[in-house]
Design goal:
This protein is an alpha/beta fold. It folds into two domains: 2-111, 3-Layer(aba) Sandwich (Rossmann fold); 133-291, TPP-binding domain (Rossmann fold, 3-Layer(aba) Sandwich), CATH 3.40.50. It has twelve helices and ten strands. A six-stranded parallel beta sheet has the order 7-6-5-8-9-10, with helices on both faces. It has a four-stranded parallel beta sheet with strand order 1-2-4-3, with helices on both faces. Strand 3 (72-75), helix 5 and strand 4 form a beta-alpha-beta unit. Helix 9 runs antiparallel to helix 12 (279-291). The protein is elongated. The two termini are 42 Å apart.
Length: 307
């Protein structure tokens, strides 16, 4: 449900649970939100602050559990901290690479009173990182010079569907997507290669092996997408754009790395892209798709063999 809210409303989702088992039952969903870059605010109960560390009824070290699966976590020990913590949590969940923030609220803090003249102003995302014009010029030159480029989309393109499509169509880029980016190009679009990796079409993976340039937008080179790192796109130069600096060079070393919001980058990149038909490349793509079709033959018996 949190994913639907995020993807339809573009806002962080909020979930609440009691202390102990209520909190631990959230762990899998929160870990998933962290990996899928879903902004999520989790508010859980806790035993009174004075009883923390005494193994009180339904006491769990929620703070410790949440450290590796959240962007940030809070244990609120004073009710006066709560308004600012809530505001900061919404800002952190949305800024940079989105993700979950966990707020643990002891029982005595929940029942305490507070006097406020006004609540803190609504939280806004932190500004996206700046990037150099030179990196954009270098990326554009590589795209314009490429003979067999492929566009590789991940969940980081969620806020840039129009510009992603504009780039693909202007540069005539065969486009593959992770699960988180499906739908950025419709399945029937002539440039769509569908998913890559173990859940993708065999032809898509063969096409990637022929690429001389890989333009990676908001994707993290997941092992189920690329398989053996050293054998993935061995002849391709890589342009990697991601809001999370930690993803740049973590798995594959890019020739051009840009830490920034994808939509901001495309706004400057697209005007520098030349329209090219790339007929020879598209013919090779079509040949591979015909040689390795996604569908099984309609007429098949128990004696048939697959080529």
């Amino acid at each position: 449900m949190r994913r639907v809210w995020r993807e339809t409303e573009g806002k962080p989702a909020v979930c609440m649970a009691c202390s102990g088992p209520g909190a631990t039952n959230l762990v899998t969903a929160i870990a998933d939100a962290r990996l899928d870059s879903i902004p999520l605010i989790c508010i859980t109960g806790q035993v009174p602050a004075s009883m923390i560390g005494t193994d009180a009824f339904q006491e769990v070290d929620t703070y410790g559990i949440s450290i590796p699966i959240t962007k940030h976590n809070y244990l609120v020990r004073n009710v006066n901290e709560l308004p600012q913590v809530m505001s900061d949590a919404f800002r952190l969940a949305q800024s940079g690479r989105p993700g979950p923030v966990w707020i643990d609220v002891p029982k005595d803090v929940q029942t305490a009173t507070i006097e406020l003249e006004a609540l803190p102003p609504p939280a806004e995302k932190s500004p996206s990182p700046d990037f150099s014009a030179e990196s954009i010029r270098e990326a554009a030159a590589m795209i314009n010079a490429a003979k067999r480029p492929v566009l590789y989309l991940g969940g980081g393109v969620i806020n840039a569907p129009a510009r992603v499509r504009e780039l693909a169509e202007k540069a005539q880029l065969p486009t593959t997507m992770t699960l988180m980016a499906l739908g950025m190009l419709p399945k029937a679009h002539p440039l769509s290669l569908g998913m890559l990796g173990m859940h993708g079409a065999r032809s898509t993976n063969f096409i990637l092996q022929e690429a001389d340039l890989l333009i990676v937008l908001g994707a993290r080179f997941d092992d189920r997408a690329i398989g053996k790192t050293e054998q993935f796109c061995p002849n391709a130069k890589i342009i990697h754009v991601d809001i999370d600096r930690a993803e740049l060079g973590k798995i594959k070393q890019p020739h051009v790395a840009i830490q920034a919001d994808v939509d901001d980058v495309l706004a400057q990149l697209i005007p520098q892209i030349e329209t090219q038909p790339r007929e020879a490349w598209h013919q090779l793509v079509a040949d591979l798709q015909q040689e390795f079709p996604a569908a099984f033959p309609r007429k098949i018996t128990h004696l048939a063999t697959m080529d």
